[in-house]
Specification:
Elements (H helix, E strand, L loop, with lengths): L2 E4 L2 E11 L6 E10 L2 E2 L10 H5 L6 E6 L3 H12 L3 E4 L6 E7 L13 E8 L18 E6 H33 L3
Antiparallel strand pairs: 1-2, 2-3, 3-4, 3-5, 6-7, 7-8, 8-9
Helix pairs in contact: 2-3
Length: about 180
Amino acid sequence: MAILKDEDLELEILPLSYHDWEYCPETDFKVTMRWKGIPLLNEAALKRTGSYWEQGKECGLVASEQDSLTLIKDFEDCLNDKKVRLWEAWPDPDMTISIYPERYFPYLEDVDSEYISIIVSPDSYQFKDSDCYRGYSGVSFVMVIEVEVFKTFVSELKTEFDSIMEPFKSKRKKSNGAKNGK
């Protein structure tokens, strides 16, 4: 499992499923924040109606992306070009993850090349009885991570996402090869 750790604070991003709808692939994943292994969100406060929201059970948040998985790309690009990235789940804005390279804390002006700050901001629609998206009103989690630790996390996360997507990509390659007479 890809878990980003800063002493006792942990961020886990867990790939849940990949659907190859042909017209629009979709990747679902769960995000959980923990302190000393204890989830920071209360399960009773989270939305769990329907199969999509149930995926977050055990104090996690749920997000998905359609068309392509840009979360990993944003992480990698931020490491390479040192530009701030604001990733948003799509098409439903269930969550934003802000990535601030070379910052010990995102709002400080001083550059510190040894650190990267991450802010996970779920939309309040993730919470029980919320009936609409509200533009990220609610709770956010901030982590300040050493760049080398973040690089390892991104590599592990990419491997995990690739493992759930690979069977579909292989199947599509075989299908396309058969259609082309190969």
